[in-house]
Amino acid sequence: MMQPSSHFTEPFAIAVDELIVDDLGDQSETQRVLFRGFAKVSNLNSREFWEAAALGSEQTRKFFMRWVPSLDAVDLDRAYVLWRGKRLSITSVDNVDMRNETVIIRAKEVRK
């Protein structure tokens, strides 16, 4: 069942880092945003939390959002979520029941 859009209140973005080469051949890293949208963000539930804690992934967040076709092209090895000034690495993207309605993105906070 699709959630009402009023539940998706948290702004976030999905981005990748890219190397840019200037005219002199110098390389610099830049951030390219692939998608901007709104999601419902939650912590893991109790069972998920303890399973994640055993793996050291208890800082994982779940982003519930509407499905968009551009998510199918996201390279999970390179992409990350930007949310509230934090960078979170994407651990999984779940198209709920393969219905192309709701997506759950699980992302783990990147420690510096």
Q: Which helices and strands appear, and what pairs or packs with what?
A:
Layout: E1 10-21, E2 27-43, H1 46-55, E3 60-66, E4 80-83, E5 86-95, E6 102-109
Antiparallel strand pairs: 1-2, 1-4, 2-3, 3-6, 4-5, 5-6
Quick rundown:
With 112 residues, the chain is mostly beta strands. It is 9% helix and 52% strand.
Task: Describe the protein's architecture and organization.
This protein is mainly beta and 112 residues long. The protein has a single domain, classed as Thrombin, subunit H, CATH 2.40.10.270. Helix content is 9%, strand content 52%. The protein contains 1 helix and 6 strands; from the N terminus they run E-E-H-E-E-E-E. The protein has one helix spanning 46-55, and strands at residues 10-21, 27-43, 60-66, 80-83, 86-95, 102-109. A 6-stranded antiparallel beta barrel has the order 1-2-3-6-5-4. Strand 4 (80-83) and strand 5 (86-95) form a beta hairpin. The relative contact order is 0.23.
Question: CATH H level: which superfamily?
Answer: Bacteriophage SPP1 head-tail adaptor protein
Instruction: Tell me the strand percentage band.
Output: over 45%
Q: What is the rounded Rg?
A: 16 Å
Number of domains: 1
User: What's the CATH class label?
Assistant: Mainly Beta
CATH architecture: Beta Barrel
pLDDT averaged residue by residue: 82
Low-confidence residue ranges: none
The strand order across the widest sheet is 1-2-3-6-5-4
Q: What sort of overall outline do the alpha carbons produce when their principal axes are compared?
A: globular
Return the CATH topology. Answer: Thrombin, subunit H
Helix amount? under 10%
What is the SS-derived class? Answer: mainly beta
Please provide the ordered H/E string of secondary-structure elements: EEHEEEE
Strands, count: 6
Main sheet?
A: 6 strands, antiparallel, barrel
End-to-end CA span: 38 Å
Continuous helix count: 1
